Amino acid sequence: MNTYFITGISTDVGKTIASAILVEALNADYWKPIQAGDLEHSDTTKVQRLVSNKKSKFHASSFLLNTPMSPHAAAEIDGVSMSAKTIKALKTKKNLVIEGAGGILVPINDSETILDLIKPGYKVIVVSRHYLGSINHTLLTVNLLKSKGFEVALIFSGQAHPSTETIIEKMTQVPVIGRIDEEPYFDKNVVLEYAEKFKETL
């Protein structure tokens, strides 16, 4: 069984939808260690609503922070002390999909970032979405992960931008699991369709 850590090149690039698709494709468990803000409509709740299979379990976040900010700032507002040591790696006998918060260098305290939550042996999937600067952000993210020895793959999301995606593929030389298009909506059926596509490349 494998653990897949889903990260993005920025915020709002499609990590949660990608996570739901992978959970469905792998009948995996899901865990979001840090949820900052929107607690009534958390990413865990969103993924749970998009997944059809009855095998996946949705594990409680280690930290539920009230303010939609960088985790270090949200934790400070809540008076919470947070570190990589206080976020115990989840144990399961199934495949596990872990969704990060923002990108890999988002701080969780004064000295640690989301990168410190990615354990050796995790497969890291980077979600990349086209915008001005996204090539730079994608290359920086992938190259840092590769330099740390992680196995990395990409998912592209949003409206297709062939020139951006082609140069990213050429310069990173990492596998591309697939792309998630700019759909009018996402529900269980749409997620199921993508899950079937992604099974072949996971």
Automatic annotation (TrEMBL):
It holds the Pfam family AAA_26. ATP binds at residues 12-17, 43, 99-102, 158-159. Pathway: Cofactor biosynthesis; biotin biosynthesis; biotin from 7,8-diaminononanoate: step 1/2. Keywords: ATP-binding, Biotin biosynthesis, Cytoplasm, Ligase, Magnesium, Metal-binding, Nucleotide-binding. It comes from the Bacteria. It is found in: Cytoplasm. Its EC number is 6.3.3.3. This is ATP-dependent dethiobiotin synthetase BioD. It comes from Gelidibacter salicanalis.
